[in-house]
Amino acid sequence: MSAKKTLFDKVWDSHVVHQIKNGPDVLFIDRHMVHEVTSPVAFLGLKNRGIGVMHPEKTFATADHNTPTINQHLPVADPLSANQLKMLEENANEYDISYWGLGHEKNGIVHVVGPEYGITLPGATIVCGDSHTSTHGAFGAIAFGIGTSEVEMVLATQCIMQPKPKSMRINITGDLQFGVTPKDVALFIISQLTTSGATGYFVEYAGDVFKNMTMEGRMTVCNLSIEMGARGGMIAPDETTFHYIKGREFTPKEAAWNTAMDYWQTLYTDEGAEFHKELTFDGSQIEPMITYGTNPGMGMGISNDIPLVEAAQGGAATYKKSLQYMQFDEGDAMIGKPIDFVFLGSCTNGRIEDFRAFASIVKGKQKAANVTAWLVPGSHKVESAIKEEGILDILTEAGFELREPGCSACLAMNDDKVPPGKLAVSTSNRNFEGRQGPGSRTLLASPLVAAAAAVTGKVTDPRELMEKEVVAG
To answer: Mind listing the domains of the chain with CATH numbers?
Structure first.
């Protein structure tokens, strides 16, 4: 009788090309996503060694981090960004890699366009020189970020050397409260585990809460796995998964689809399989979340007060330094704090479902005069859906403008930078000091919380503005 295996074990073990005694595994990579920031040095390494890309057909390049989100038809003004974008295009053309640059209909954030076009598939191994590659684990894939030298290794060999992480399962049972979204679930988990609580683990998310999520919601959760220290996160594929991917450009067709389904339907954790660690939470105890500090683990239910230093996780000095940077005090209420910027977008919350959620709050209202709002779709597909579904009309009537696809204000690597001292409610994934611009202050939240802040000009519980209907984000 074969040993019981976790979903993670099944996918990992099936991709091991060679096991190095007392060392890492050599893992075959099915899909390699490339963008302009981490690839130039990797391609230079290939040129210096006089070698090519082993499997260009398994490699996909898109421009996202350095791209402007307005006037994309014009030359990129920033010389560093322009050079990185140019190098990506030249390298992709030289090595016959699919390249979706500015102006291309498939251009967008790497972790948004991959699933949209069926590049992301169950049971696959997927890497990219970007930590939030964990997004793709929502499809039952093993997906993780890699460094520049590893990008070069995968380009050259289609393999990577990696020690096998330990396994963790996080179960969330029950039903979510009204107004609680997948982003809130993820921020809740991080607040419980801290930013290092899953270090060394690959996480499987299980339980009714995840089963009931859309693929967009699952991507949001898996995207944030890295923020609690995990190597990645994954959710077993099911009918929701198969329905989402069927018919997309790069998914198998006809007989090949049936063959693939035979395999995909085996991708679940066997009953009795053991994890190195297992945690369970009650989903009904989660409320809309917001961060108050300078890492994603410093989060709480939006109706709560900022913890006192003796109740905070981590050292007292570090905690006080974080609150000082944020210009907050222990015991402060978050609700009512005036804000300056709202950012809707990123590989965490730049999908159509996120814009639907945002629009459900702002419909019939007006953007607060003190708020600058950057609403940035994750791809041209998302942008088109916003227009086709009438969401753009709702946003425009409420005083908002829609920008063009890109990573935007997530990481201040383009023109969308929050000014020093200004406070932003952001649907992105990190709130480190200066993450969204030198001296900027970031509150991580869901699209619903962002929308509520955008129309009130302050941190607001979105449930106060919502009609009692099913929303997502």
So the answer is: 7-164 (3.30.499.10), 290-464 (3.30.499.10)
